[in-house]
């Protein structure tokens, strides 16, 4: 898989030949220096950025051959994404942040499912709070609940503890691994933490747009 982006200086090969496989239920870490292509790989894997060439096969379907609308539908139905910056909608409550994507997907029980997900991450009593009224760890718990609410086949996490202190970050990681294991969800995690990376079933290292087993 390759990704080439334009810039003022010309074409930039962000990904130059990435080949990795992650079976359902397994965990994998992606490490490497800043600018090596880790976040770009997650964006392509999530269907947020189309690959320039190659295949991106999930559940037997090749995202590389889909148009933007088809990738969006596939992402809605099969992929969960946990961002470093949480990416919660500031004007919506914790419950609404989880329920709205489910409503957009046509789920008739969106708010019931959202409430169950909040309960599962220990935030049942914070359902009516806005993101600004939650701590960083609580916001990330909401983001994890949102990512799992759609019964994702794969969870992509980009430095999910980068904005959290050590103890809170450790609790978030434990929660993420527990939820993925219980759901049988594949987990691809970008991290700078070598100890965290070693917890995963597979470890990959990115260098100059190339990925190889660590």
Concise overview:
This protein is α/β, with parallel strands linked by helices and 214 residues long. It is 36% helix and 21% strand.
Descriptive overview:
This protein is of the alpha/beta class. The chain has a single domain (2-213), classed as P-loop containing nucleotide triphosphate hydrolases (Rossmann fold), CATH 3.40.50.300. It contains 7 helices and 10 strands. The strands form 3 sheets. It has a 6-stranded mixed β-sheet, with helices on both faces. A two-stranded antiparallel ribbon has the order 1-2. A two-stranded antiparallel ribbon has the order 4-5. Helix 3 (94-104) runs parallel beside helix 5 and helix 5 runs parallel beside helix 6. It is globular and about 45 Å long. The relative contact order is 0.21. Residues 1-14 have low confidence and may be disordered.
Tell me the layout of helices and strands:
Layout: E1 2-7, E2 10-16, E3 27-31, H1 38-45, E4 57-58, E5 61-62, H2 68-78, E6 79-82, H3 94-104, H4 110-120, H5 136-149, E7 154-158, H6 166-183, E8 186-190, H7 194-198, E9 202-207, E10 210-213
Parallel strand pairs: 3-8, 3-9, 6-7, 7-8
Antiparallel strand pairs: 1-2, 4-5, 9-10
Summary tags:
single chain, 214 residues, alpha/beta, Rossmann fold, 6-stranded mixed β-sheet, two-stranded antiparallel ribbon, 7 helices, 36% helix, 21% strand, disordered N terminus
């Amino acid at each position: 898989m390759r990704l080439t982006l334009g810039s003022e200086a010309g074409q930039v090969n962000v990904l130059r030949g990435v080949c990795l496989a992650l079976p359902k239920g397994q965990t994998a870490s992606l490490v490497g220096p800043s600018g090596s292509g880790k976040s770009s790989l997650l964006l392509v894997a999530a269907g947020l950025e189309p690959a320039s060439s190659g295949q991106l096969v999930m559940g037997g379907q090749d995202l590389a051959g889909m148009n933007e609308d088809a990738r969006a539908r596939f992402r809605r139905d099969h992929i969960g994404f946990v961002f470093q910056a949480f990416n919660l909608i500031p004007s919506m409550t914790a419950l609404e942040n989880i329920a709205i994507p489910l409503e957009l997907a046509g789920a008739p029980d969106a708010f019931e499912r959202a409430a169950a997900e909040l309960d599962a991450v220990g935030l049942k009593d914070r359902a009516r709070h806005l993101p600004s009224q939650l701590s960083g760890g609580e916001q990330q718990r909401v983001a994890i609940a949102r990512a799992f609410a759609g019964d994702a086949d794969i969870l992509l996490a980009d430095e999910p503890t980068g904005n959290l202190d050590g103890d809170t970050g450790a609790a978030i990681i434990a929660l993420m691994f527990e939820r993925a294991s219980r759901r049988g969800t594949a987990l691809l995690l970008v991290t700078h933490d070598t100890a965290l990376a070693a917890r995963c079933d597979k470890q990959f290292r990115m260098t100059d747009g190339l990925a190889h087993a660590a």
